[in-house]
Amino acid sequence: MGVPLLDLKAQYRDLQDELDAAINDVMANAAFIGGPKVAALEQAIADYCGTKYAVACGNGTDALFLILAAMGIGKGDEVITTPFTFFATVEAIVHLGAKPVFVDIEPGTYNMDVTALEAAITDRTKAIMPVHIFGQCVDMDVVNEIAGRHGLKVIEDACQAIGATYKGRMAGSLADAAAFSFFPSKNLGCAGDGGIVTTDDKEIADACRKLANHGSSRKYYHDAFGVNSRLDSLQAAILLVKLPHLDTWNAQRRAAAEVYGELLAGVDGIELPVVRDYGVPVYHLYIVKSERAEKVMAALQEAGIGTALYYPLALHEQECFESVDGFVKPSLPEVESCDARTFALPCFPGITRSQQDEIVRVVKDALA
């Protein structure tokens, strides 16, 4: 029985009529950049997240970059973040001339260890960028309290967490600003690249919108050096079709995660994800940890079951940081213990119990 890591083809089949009609409407009206579809998506995402503003952009990486730039973060500044995330998180920081400062992670949730935050703050720290990794929110009350005492900005990297909640509030509404990605594999994905910024701060929203449009608020007049990061109307139309289904899809991911929790409970040689009681995760990925990850993944792949390492190497260990001025590689034992040991099991909307039974059988056999 083959099982993909994520079944986007099935998702398209379920929504094909609506998606095709939305795409045809954009083509017929030839409104490809900006326009009513993008404006409608911005309003819909702001309403969904419970924020005053949402600013669409080209991708999640740009969303992070635009927020940092809008906050004036640049050369000589430091941004505290996690070493256990996709590379885009630190890429946005470094491209603005700022320096990422890494703190270790919690076991099980793989989120930033908020108890390590205060010790990482220096007189150059300007912001904290927690990442809601794999779709579970960081303990944001602690982050915001520390940031408030030190006069720091807080930026949610919520690229993997749309729909997740923290104490009843939505990811994307828990900080000064937040970034989301609509990469196709995300819980809410388009048919290419896409991203959005959410915030309650009008100045940040206006600055992000201007910077994403070549530093221009009025055509051919530029009062800043920006970038070209605009969401295509085709992608906005696709996302507007998918958004009403997001909560159902996220609930299906949680149900699948519960099945794994039951079937793999007590199995030697594998660590299951930990869920904190302060929020509701959305399982962008269902991540397990094992010293025998290579063997288990090989067995899954041989059985035609999708899997992948997340992540093979922590960010502070990446070769590129050797060229970053002033960067000193920290010792972060918890995240380093995850190198090439944390991997994903299929956990997508629509996965069947029989598929999960087969996945678990392969995992158990490989660990036996």
Describe what you observe in this structure.
The protein is α/β, with parallel strands linked by helices and 368 residues long. The chain has two domains: 8-103 and 110-244, Aspartate Aminotransferase, domain 2, CATH 3.40.640.10; 246-367, Aspartate Aminotransferase, domain 1, CATH 3.90.1150. Helix content is 38%, strand content 13%. The chain has twelve helices and twelve strands. The chain has a seven-stranded mixed beta sheet, with helices on both faces. The chain is globular and about 65 Å long. The chain starts with 7 loop residues before the first helix and ends with a helix. The mean pLDDT is 97.
Secondary-structure blueprint:
Blueprint: H1 8-29, H2 35-49, E1 53-57, H3 60-70, E2 78-81, H4 88-95, E3 99-102, H5 117-120, E4 125-129, H6 140-150, E5 153-157, E6 165-166, E7 169-170, E8 177-181, E9 195-199, H7 202-212, H8 233-242, H9 246-264, E10 279-280, E11 286-289, H10 293-302, H11 333-336, E12 342-345, H12 353-367
Parallel strand pairs: 2-3, 2-4, 4-5, 5-8
Antiparallel strand pairs: 1-9, 6-7, 6-10, 8-9, 11-12
Helix pairs in contact: 1-8, 2-8, 3-4, 3-7, 9-12, 10-12
Keywords:
single chain; 368 residues; Aspartate Aminotransferase, domain 2; Aspartate Aminotransferase, domain 1; 2 domains; 38% helix
